[in-house]
Design a protein that fits this description.
The protein is 27% helix and 16% strand. It has helices spanning 47-55, 135-139, 142-146, 152-160, 197-205, 210-221, 232-244, 248-259, 270-273; strands spanning 2-3, 33-35, 62-69, 74-77, 80-85, 88-95, 97-102, 110-115, 165-167, 188-189. The strands form 3 sheets. Strands 2, 3, 4, 5, 6 and 10 form a 6-stranded antiparallel beta sheet that branches. It has a two-stranded antiparallel sheet with strand order 1-9.
């Protein structure tokens, strides 16, 4: 497997606005499970990775995803019917996307939902070489190739040309992460419907509060792999840690959201919005060892 990522970051963006005629780009909204939210390209993380983000004070970079289901187990949460495991609302936790000014695929700069960790200037990940870089990101698109499923690289090629997927042989260790053993490790179940009644509606509307995010992150962090068990004690500690988290991500998320409301899209302001808050730098493309 070999990919050409320079100037792309298609897997880190919701770039549907740059491909309005691409009928296949809503791939996450097909099948039995349809996300409540309207953001493409969620990068799911595991319970271990959730705990690692919490330890680094990066809870603000995480978001929960719940699903509607047409034919299958479900449960009502307030006025919303969501997919369920064992009668409990099922959800994933992934990397949060916020509006950032980016210019992928050679396009003009515009505001697009963008991974909290993506540098708008270089279109590189700020945590790529860190201990919290998720497995989902490090192995992409290996799992898609192993499943013979279309990759984001190929969607970019179809919509914008160029060669992004240079070698489509799946790596030998490719292992799709949402298999039967994912319960409690990557697919979580919230134990208390009443506790999240308003939060689910706010997540669906893109209006979730800090407390809403912390609730789901805490349950994921306190989940036991292979079961629906959630430790109350660990959940409470994780919730407190998520609410107390103070990193560059939280402030940047709030400022990006404010700036996107009417400000011209200029990737260069990332130096202020993220860099001045302590965001890790990215290396750029000129000094890559493979050049």
């Amino acid at each position: 497997m070999e990919v050409n990522c320079e100037g792309c970051a298609g897997c880190c963006l919701d770039w549907r606005a740059l491909a309005p005629d691409d009928a296949d780009h809503g791939h996450e909204r097909r099948g039995r499970y349809r996300p409540l939210d309207d953001i493409d390209n969620l990068a799911p993380v595991s319970s271990d990775e959730v705990r690692a983000f919490l330890a680094e004070g990066l809870a603000s970079a995480l978001v929960a995803r719940l699903f509607r289901i047409d034919d299958g187990p479900s449960v009502a949460v307030g006025g919303v019917e969501v997919a369920a495991l064992g009668g409990r609302p099922a959800f994933l936790v992934g990397l949060r996307k916020v509006p950032k000014p980016v210019a992928p695929f050679g396009a003009e700069s515009r505001w697009l939902p963008t991974c909290a960790f993506l540098d708008p200037v270089t279109l590189q990940c700020r945590i790529h070489d860190s201990g919290v870089y998720p497995e989902t990101c490090s192995t992409y698109p290996g799992d898609n190739l192993a499943l013979d499923a279309e990759t984001e690289c190929e969607r970019v090629e179809r919509a914008h040309g160029g060669e992004r997927l240079v070698d489509d042989d799946p790596p030998e260790d490719a292992d799709p992460v949402l298999g039967p053993g994912a319960v409690g490790a990557r697919v979580f179940a919230h134990p208390d419907v009443d506790r999240i009644e308003g939060a689910v509606e706010r997540l669906a509307a893109g209006e979730a509060t800090r407390a809403d995010h912390a609730e789901f992150v805490a349950v994921a962090a306190a989940s036991a792999p292979g079961t629906l068990t959630v430790s109350d004690e660990r959940c409470e500690r994780a919730r407190e840690r998520a609410l107390e988290a103070d990193s560059w991500v939280g402030g940047a998320v709030a400022e990006w959201t404010d700036r996107a409301d009417g400000e011209p899209p200029d990737p260069g302001v990332a130096a202020t919005v993220e860099g001045d808050r302590g965001a890790p730098p990215t290396p750029g493309w000129d000094d890559r060892p493979d050049r």
